[in-house]
Amino acid sequence: MKKLGDLYFFCGKMGAGKSTKSKQLAAEKHAVLLSEDEWLSALYPNEIASFDDYLKFSAQLKPLVKKHVQNILSVGTDVVMDFPGNTQKQRKWLLSIASEVNANHQLIFLNLNNEQCLRQIAQRRNEQPERATFDTIETFIHVTKFFEEPDVSEGLNILEFNE
């Protein structure tokens, strides 16, 4: 029986460092990195102006991404997904990608507090001015309302980091 790839995905508030860590992990594991932000900006350029737009286009993307990732895992290649796993529903979808093809998974939980996240968001605004309209305190407060900490009862293999 051939070895399946492993699926890695992330949970953490906005600004916790999920994208940065996903790039580092993909390089370490020699894994395929898939970024939701990159896919959305390539497929829907200038169409995401609000959180509701993001939700709409993200939902349209998911079936294609799921099948694509399952195909990659099935040939034995590891995949790092820079897609949010910040709610039970999002994590259930990410877990289904691995479980439906019997691949292993790892949820990396970047458990940073609000102050740490806001500091990193401010730094990101300086480094990536094109993100300044979305990377605001107001957006952080809005999306953090939906954040749900992961729990092993969800059937997840969780690796937690506090910094």
TrEMBL record:
One of its GO terms (biological process) is cell division. It holds the Pfam family AAA_33. Keywords: Cell cycle, Cell division. It comes from the Bacteria. Gene3D superfamilies: P-loop containing nucleotide triphosphate hydrolases. InterPro entries: P-loop_NTPase (IPR027417). This is Cell division protein ZipA.
